[in-house]
Specification:
Length: about 375
């Protein structure tokens, strides 16, 4: 399973005009006074006596600090002050909109989940439930009637291959709308997720994320959820919800994965349910393969053919971008997560399984009906 990106964005200074305007006014007045042969008013202290005499200006007292200030303004002091201000501003915005949230109470605590070790039997039950929901949602996708709200003339999944056409713009817009609705619906169950959500944005040049093997990225500077539009389509709904969860302050990747799973599972759209359950199976199935290989093989054989095609294409797609860029991106992402108290680094994504087990353990009838 691929990673989600560390926050970054390009920010342009919004204060440049005002400083430039002041500088121009200063030097225009300075030149005007120079043309008169004297320097008066607030400009007098900024030149040394020698410079004033050389330029034809009348001499006058000048403090050392004002001399230094004048020289720095000509030697890049203004540029350095702008750079310092810009860096400070970016750091402040990052801290407020992103960094500080790595140290908040985890979602499992706020939701009242009991995190405890689980048995292989519990893990098998979870995976069995996920396989059943994948089959149900895949069937709903194939059987939805033409003309219904969920109908699309181009259905990119289930069953995507390398020959499947790219999703049209209207399809991506619909995915964004459904993602917002799914997160709003989850907010009615968990007040900490309630509120307004912006439209998630597919990156125009998504290849920049693909070569780094990234599904999406949250920008704390513009408060935007961005996702990779060229990745396998079953990833898109879950990634949308994952990135939108960051806007509510949940920066831990395992929690964002879990919140995205809950939002997709509770969606009215079979596209989102299929995406959520298949993503959940990838994580839980990998854990089951380590704990009970025979059980994993048995459940894997019960997946619908469309899901198997999606999983195969998902592996082939990401494998095609293996290389130095992807390795460097993974290493950078790993270090970034560890710096922000995610001691497992990129491996913390696997903790989503513990959250899923804790969630269903808290339900009165965990696997009796779709949650």
């Amino acid at each position: 399973m691929r990673a989600y990106g560390t926050p970054h964005a390009l920010i342009f200074p919004i204060y440049g005009w005002s400083l430039t305007h002041i500088e121009r006014s200063f030097f225009a007045a300075l030149l005007k006074e120079r043309g008169r042969g004297q320097l008066t008013g607030c400009f007098r202290p900024f030149l040394t006596c020698a410079k004033r005499r050389a330029c034809g200006f009348s001499a006058g007292p000048s403090t050392l600090m004002r001399k230094i200030g004048f020289l720095l303004s000509f030697c890049g002091g203004v540029f350095l002050s702008r750079a310092f201000f810009l860096i400070s501003l970016l750091f402040f915005v990052f801290t407020v909109n992103c960094g500080i949230n790595y140290y908040r109470n985890p979602f499992s605590y706020e939701a009242g989940f009991s995190m405890s070790p689980s048995s292989p039997e519990e893990l098998y039950q979870l995976c069995e439930y996920l396989v059943g929901q994948i089959n149900e949602s895949a069937m709903a996708l194939k059987n939805r009637p033409e003309g219904s709200l969920d109908y699309s003339p181009i259905t990119p999944y289930p069953g995507q291959t390398s020959e499947t056409p790219a999703p049209p713009a209207f399809y991506l817009r619909e995915m964004g709308k459904l993602g917002r609705e799914a997160m709003s619906g989850l907010g009615r169950l968990y007040p900490q997720l309630a509120g307004w959500y912006p439209d998630p944005k597919p990156l125009v040049n998504s290849r920049l994320l693909s070569v780094q093997q990234l599904c999406g990225i949250y920008s704390p500077f513009t408060i935007e959820a961005n996702y990779n539009r060229e990745m396998p389509y079953y990833n898109i709904p879950h990634t949308i919800c994952h990135e939108l969860s960051h806007l509510k302050g949940y920066m831990r990747e395992d929690e964002a994965n879990f919140i995205g799973y809950l939002a997709c599972a509770g969606s009215s759209s079979p596209d989102f349910r299929y995406s959520g359950y298949l993503t959940g199976w990838v994580y839980a199935g990998n854990a089951l393969a380590k704990a009970d290989w025979e059980g994993y093989v048995r459940l894997y054989g019960q997946l619908p053919p469309e899901a198997l095609e999606d999983l195969a294409w998902n592996n082939a797609f990401w494998d095609s971008f293996e290389g130095p860029v992807a390795e460097a991106s993974t290493e950078l992402n790993d270090r970034y997560l560890k710096v922000h108290s995610q001691k497992d680094g990129v491996q913390s994504y696997g903790r989503m399984v513990d959250l899923m087990l804790a969630y269903y353990r808290s339900q009165p009838d965990p696997y009796g009906s779709r949650k």
